[in-house]
Design a protein that fits this description.
The chain is an alpha/beta fold. The longest helix is centred in the C-terminal third of the chain and has 17 residues. The protein has one domain: 3-Layer(aba) Sandwich (Rossmann fold). A hairpin with a 2-residue loop joins β4 and β5. It contains 9 helices and 10 strands. The chain has a 6-stranded mixed sheet with strand order 6-7-8-3-9-10, sandwiched between helices. Strands 2-1-4-5 form a 4-stranded antiparallel sheet, with helices on one face. Bound molecules: adenosine-5'-triphosphate (ATP). The site of adenosine-5'-triphosphate has 12 residues, from β2 and α2. Keywords: ATP-binding, Nucleotide-binding, Transport. It comes from Streptomyces toxytricini. This is ABC transporter ATP-binding protein. GO terms for molecular function: ATP binding.
């Protein structure tokens, strides 16, 4: 029997790898405006692991995230979510896969202002015509500490609370993988630390897989591993990172760019 690529997340359908990219290259523009944002990047995101993606500004972090999440199409190379290769899907199938198998958290919280927190969290499943898994939803809502705020609209919530709603929305479908692009970029350090704690708890306690782009060594310190991009290439990797070790590694990029 072939595994259903749209089935809810289970260990059996992903056999340890939540997502992977092979030979990923992305070229933007043509002629003088041509920029190679990603240059032959191959990477595996293991199930139940929290990965931070770091590197100097313009090195291709967001492009990697967007290509890996099926929001952008690579110039060459392939991406798999679980066992499904994105390049084999038509637009409708890709939209469905993004909705059902991938969670997104962006710097801007991207909540719908007219909906309550709970309605925002369950919107993707409502669009899909599915009832949310109540037990899972309760766990997610409790984890991000929103139980008393579910009837509030975004304008009645702080930035940190709004991002918690966005994290709960990303986790609500029990996705194969959550992609977060600078999730703490709009938050003060206390709210940012809370959101990072929730992302880490979703990995540790709920077995989720998270990939996060960040500029912040403290944020990267919440991850299980950090991968470093430079000029569109994967140049280093660190397991069990601490903010100090990440900062030291980032300083080496600064030195390099000052001397090159
Ligand atoms: N749509 C686009 N058209 C042309 N060039 C682009 C486009 N998107 C990104 N680029 C270029 O590709 C390179 C990588 O951009 P990307 O946004 O992935 O980097 P980044 O590491 O996320 O940067 P930052 O840390 O500043 O957000 C940059 O040189 C950028 O200018």
């Amino acid at each position: 029997m072939t595994a259903d690529p749209f089935a809810p997340h289970t260990a059996a359908t992903t056999s340890g790898t939540a997502a992977s990219a092979s030979g990923l290259t992305k070229v933007h523009g043509t002629g003088d405006a041509r920029v190679t944002a990603l240059d032959d990047v191959s990477i595996t995101f293991r199930q139940g692991e929290f990965t931070a993606v770091m590197g100097p500004s313009g090195c291709g972090k967001s492009t990697l995230l967007h290509c890996a999440a099926g929001l952008d199409t690579p110039t060459s190379g392939s991406v798999r979510i679980g066992t499904t290769e994105l390049g084999t899907l038509d637009d409708r199938e890709l939209t469905r896969l993004r909705r059902d198998r991938i969670g997104f958290v962006f710097q801007a919280f991207n909540l719908l202002p007219t909906l309550t927190a709970l309605e925002n969290i369950t919107l993707p499943s409502a669009i899909a015509g599915r009832r949310p898994d109540r037990e899972w939803l309760d766990q997610v809502v409790a984890m991000v500490g929103l139980s008393g705020r579910l009837g509030h609209r975004p304008a009645q919530l702080s930035g940190g609370q709004q991002q918690r709603v966005a994290v709960a929305r990303a986790l609500a479908s029990r996705p194969a993988i959550v992609f977060a692009d600078e999730p703490t970029g709009n938050l003060d350090s206390r709210s940012g630390a809370e959101v990072l704690g929730f992302l880490r708890d979703s990995v540790r306690d709920l077995g989720q897989t998270v990939v996060m782009v960040t500029h912040d060594p403290s944020a990267a310190g919440y991850a299980d591993r950090v991968v470093f991009l430079c000029d569109g290439r994967l140049v280093d990797e660190m397991t069990r990172p601490t903010p100090d070790r990440v900062l030291d590694r980032m300083k080496a990029f600064d030195t390099r760019s000052r001397t090159s």
